[in-house]
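Incident log, support desk, overnight shift.

02:14 A customer reports that sequence design results differ from what the structure should imply. Their input is reproduced verbatim below. On-call engineer (initials T.W.) acknowledged and began investigating.
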């Protein structure tokens, strides 16, 4: 990884489908990434595939180095993750990609929190001191996140929700470097709109990737 980079230091923790897709897009956009998972051999193998903009770390070290942390893990595991690493996460920008869903037994998915609740709002109450939570990167499936990045002639949108105006520049840099146009849908209380089943999610009323003009129209339809 280029240690002289002036880019925002970002760590992706958890290298499943979405973690790998975010890492691949960021490196494609020339943005260095710090990667960590519970399996250091797996982390090294993925870093090997991504090239020299990716750096493998243990989870604790990754959290210490980075300013923005993307735990690409399941909603149900996030509260414990915040507790386990509360010291390292203090003062950090934490990006919540999670969708609070589980298989419904009929080949589909069901929401595992109340119909009017969002993962973003729930998790924002559990983050460590001085940390901020931003909801982003989870509005598309991993396939679309990869396939729709760096779209030509016009980029597609990734929505985000944030209560921290001071942090928005960093999240917008990351969304841009991963090949999308950032679109702020409002505060964390708007998270439900950009989670699965929400009106602005690929697996909700929106149903597809959208350009900025389409996003503007959809976002103001409520
Ligand atoms: N897949 C999608 O299309 C998609 C789209 C939008 C949002 N999301 C959200 O992204 C998150 C991850 O989904 P995914 O599809 O990427 O799942 P996945 O492919 O099953 O990967 C989940 C990863 O989380 C790691 N993990 C679980 N608990 C952990 C912990 N306590 N500490 C560190 N790592 C942990 C697992 O690591 P191990 O290998 O060590 O078990 C695994 O690599 C979910 O919240 C999901 O709702 C997914």
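02:41 Re-run completed on a clean worker. Output:
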């Amino acid at each position: 990884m280029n240690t002289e980079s002036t880019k925002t230091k970002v760590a992706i923790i958890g290298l499943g489908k979405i973690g790998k897709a975010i890492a691949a897009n960021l490196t494609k956009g020339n943005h260095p990434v710090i990667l960590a998972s519970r399996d250091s051999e797996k982390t090294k193998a993925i870093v090997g595939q991504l090239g020299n903009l990716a750096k493998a770390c243990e989870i604790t070290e990754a959290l210490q180095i980075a300013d923005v942390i993307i735990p690409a893990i399941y909603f149900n595991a996030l509260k414990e993750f915040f507790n386990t690493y509360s010291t390292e996460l203090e003062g950090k920008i934490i990006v919540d990609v999670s969708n609070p869903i589980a298989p419904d037994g009929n080949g589909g998915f069901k929401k595992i929190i109340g119909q009017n609740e969002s993962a973003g709002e729930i998790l924002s109450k559990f983050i460590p001191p001085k940390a901020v939570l931003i909801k982003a990167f989870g509005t598309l499936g991993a396939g679309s996140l990869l396939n729709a990045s760096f779209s030509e002639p016009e980029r597609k949108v990734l929505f985000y929700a944030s209560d921290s105006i001071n942090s928005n520049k960093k999240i917008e840099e990351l969304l841009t470097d991963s090949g999308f146009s950032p679109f702020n849908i409002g505060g964390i209380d708007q998270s439900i709109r950009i989670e699965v089943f929400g009106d602005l999610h690929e697996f909700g009323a929106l149903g597809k990737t959208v350009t900025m003009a389409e996003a503007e129209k959809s976002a103001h339809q409520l």
